[in-house]
Amino acid sequence: MSAYLNLRIFRTKLAGALASVGLATAALAGCSSATDNSASSAAGSGSESSASSAAAAVDGSQKAAAVLADNQDVHAVAGDTEVDAAGAVGIELKGDSASSDGDGVKVDGSTVTITAAGTYRVGGTLDDGQIVVTAPEAKVTLILDGAKISHSKGAAIDVTDADEAVVVLADGSANSLADAASYADDAEANAALHSAADLTIGGSGSLTVKGNGNDGITSTDGLVIQGGTLTVDAADDGIRGKDYVVVNGGTVTVTAKGDGLKADNTEDADRGYIAVGGGTVKVTSAGDGIDAATDLVATAGKVTVTSEASDDSSAHGLKSGVITVLEGGTVDVTSSADALHGDGAVHLDGAAATLAAGDDGVHAEGDLVISAGTVKVTRANEGLEGKDILVSGGSTDVISGDDGVNASGSESTSADEGGQGGFGGGGGGEGVGDFTVTVTGGTLVINSEGDGFDSNGTASITGGTVVVNGPERNGNGALDVNGDLTVSGGTLLAAGSAGMLVAPADGSEQGWLSATLDSALQAGETVHITDSDGKVVASYVTSKAVQNIVYSGEGIENGEEYTVHTGGSTSGTSTGGLAESGELGSAEKTTTVTAGEAPEGGGFGGGGGGRP
Q1: Cα separation of 583 and 67, whole Å?
Q2: Is 86 strand, coil or helix?
Q3: Positive or negative CA dihedral for 327, 328, 334, 335?
Q4: Which of 173, 214, 437, 582 has its CB surrounded by the most CB atoms within 10 Å?
Q5: Which helix (H) or strand (E) holds 24?
C-alpha cells in the first residue's frame, strides 16, 4: 500500500471523527491486525505492518456518499449507452474476414482495426480474429448487434489506445466473445474483452464472455456497467477494472477461477474501488467474490456471491482494503472464508445482508459498525469480529460455531494490566486489550456454541436489545469480557452455561441480576423473572440447555430481590426468545436472587474455548 493511500486513510478517519464525534467516541477506532492475518503480519516487512495498521485506523462510521466522494469520479455520463445505430459505421463479420462501409475502419484478413472516434455497429461472426481499437484521445462506441468473435491468439476485442470505449449491446441481440487459451506473462491484453481506456458497457442485449486464458473483461482504467445481460466465465478474474468497477444496472453473472469482480489499483489513493448502485450481480468464484483494493460500496441492487476456494487459500465473499459500506440493496454471501472481510473497516448501514461463512461472518481489522438494515449471519465460526464493534441500529442475528461477537486482534495496548478477576470485572487472568464492543441501539441476537458476547477489552450497552443464547459447554460463557462490562440502558438477556460467568460491572448505571440454577433447563422451557410484588419483568423461552441467566432492563433495581420461575406462557413479539410479555400461570419458583450481586460458583469470567 502506498504512502498516498495511508494519507487518505488518515484524512478520512479524521473527517469522520469531526463529523460524528459521538459515534467516533463510541467506536474508538484504532490499529490492529486480525487473527487470520497474524502469521503474515509477523513475517511481513515494517512497511507492510504500517500499511495494515493504517488501514485498520479508518473511521468505520462513514456513509457511502462520503466514501465515494473521496474517490476518483466515474468517467461514464448519462446517455453514453443510448446511441442511434442508424448513423453508425457498419462492420460485417464474415467468418474468416470482415467488411466495412465507412471511414475509420481498416480490415486486414480477420483483424478489424478502428482508428477514429465515432460509433460502429458490429454484426456477424468472426471465427478466429479480433477487433482492435487504436484511436488516441478518441471516444469510440461499439454497438454489438449479433456479434460473435473468437480469437485463438489474443483478445477478441482489444482497445489498445483511446480516451474512452463504450460497448452497447443492441436491443434483443445476443453477442459472444472468446479469447486465446493462454497468454504470455508480459502480455498487455489478457482478457477476452480488454481495454487500455475507460470502458463503459450498457444497452439491453446480452453478452457472453469466455475468458479462456485469463480474465473475462478487463479495463486498465475504470470500468462501468450500465445495463445489459452479461455472462462471464473466466480462467482467472471475471471482471476487472484497475481504477474502479461500478455496476449501476443490468444483470451480471460471473463464474471465475480467480476473483469475481476486482479493482486492484493500490498506488493511487482515490482508486481501486468497487461500487454497486443498481442491477443484479451474481458471482461464483474460487477466489474472492468481490475484491476492492480500497473501498467497496453498495447502495442499491442485488448482490449474490458464492466464493469457495479449491485449495488452502482464503476465498472471502466481499473484501476491501480500506472500508466496506453496505448502505442499500440486498447482499447474500456464502464463503469458505469470511463472508465480509475488511482490512480496515466495515459499515453495515441499511443493506439486507445474509451471510454464511466458513470463518467469520463479518471481519474487520478495525471498526465494525452496524447502524441500520438487517444482518443475518446464518453460519460462521465467529459471527462478528473486529477491533472496535459498534451496534447502533438495525436488526442483527448471529449463529456461530464459536464466538458470536468478538472484539479482538493480535495487538493489545494494555496487555500488562491483566484481568481484574471476579464477577463483573472479567478476564480470567487475561489481559485487557484495546478492544471494545458497544451497543447503543438496534437489536442484536446471538446464538453461539462458543462465547456469545465477547470482548478482549471492554464492553458497554447503553441502548437497544441484546439477547445471547450462549454455549452449553462450561468452558465458554454467554458473556466473556476481559475488562468491565457496563450496562446503562437498553435490555440485556444472556443465557448459557454456568462454568465461566461474567456479569455487569459495579459501575453499571442500570440494575441487573445474575441467576445460576441448580440444574440446567432444557430447550423450549419458559422462564419468567418477577419482582418482589410478583410482577413479571421479563419472560424468555430457552433455545438450548441453560443454567445461568443474566438480565438487565428498565424494571431492575439493584439491591432488590427477584425470583426466577419456570413454566407459564409468553405472548407478543419474541426477540431471540425474549418475549414481549408473559404470564406465570402455574409456573414454579426456581430461585431467588438479589439484583447487583453475582452468584456464587463458576469461574471468574472470560476465556475458554474460543479464539482470543
Answers
A1: 50
A2: helix
A3: negative
A4: 437
A5: helix 21-27
As beta bridge partners, residue 345 has 323
CB 469 within 8 A of CB 492: no
DSSP-assigned letters across all residues of 487-507? E-SSEEEEEE-SSS-----TT
**What is the DSSP secondary structure assignment for residue 267, as one 8-state letter?**
S
Torsion angles phi and psi, residue 262, rounded to 5: -150, 135
- Give the 3-state secondary structure of residue 416: helix
The answer to whether 440 touches 462, Cβ cutoff 8 Å, is yes
CA distance linking residue 58 with residue 387, whole number of Å: 12
Indicate the Cα dihedral angle 57, 59, 65, 67, nearest 10°: -10
Cα separation of 125 and 108, whole Å? Answer: 16
Placement of cell 491486525 in the chain: 33
Query: Which parts of the chain register pLDDT below 50?
Result: 1-50, 411-429, 602-612
| Nearest Cα residue to 122 out of 152, 85, 163 | 85
In angstroms, the CA 326 to CA 589 distance is 47
Rounded CA separation 575/451 (Å): 19
List the one residue out of 256, 258, 314, 308 whose CA is nearest residue 281: 256
Q: CB–CB of 234/254 below 8 Å?
A: yes
Residue that is written with C-alpha cell 456471491 in the block: 305
Of 209, 207, 243, give the one whose Cα is nearest residue 224. 243
Whole-angstrom distance, CA of residue 245 vs CA of residue 216: 14
**Residue 123 to residue 154: CA distance in whole angstroms:** 20
Q: Quick one: pLDDT at residue 322? A: 97
CB 440 within 8 A of CB 466: no
**The three three-digit cell numbers of residue 584, written as one number:** 406465570
Q: How far apart are CA 239 and CA 397, in angstroms?
A: 32
Q: Write the CA distances from 206 to 200, 333, 424, 585, 586, integer angstroms.
A: 15, 25, 61, 64, 66
pLDDT at residue 23, rounded to an integer:
32
Q: Is 415 helix (H, G, I), strand (E, B) or coil?
A: helix
Strand pairing class (105-108; 111-114): antiparallel
Q: Which residue has the cell 480470567?
A: 428
Report the amino acid identity of residue 128.
Answer: D
In one letter, which amino acid is 90? G
CA-derived radius of gyration, the chain: 28
Side by side, the strands of the sheet bearing 588-594 are 569-575, 578-583, 536-541, 526-530, 561-566, 588-594
Secondary structure (DSSP) of 39-76: HHHHHS-HHHHHHHHHHHTS-TT--HHHHHHTSPPPS-
> Closest Cα partner for 538 from 561, 556, 516, 560?
556
Q: β-strand 239-241 against 251-256: which pairing, if any? A: unpaired
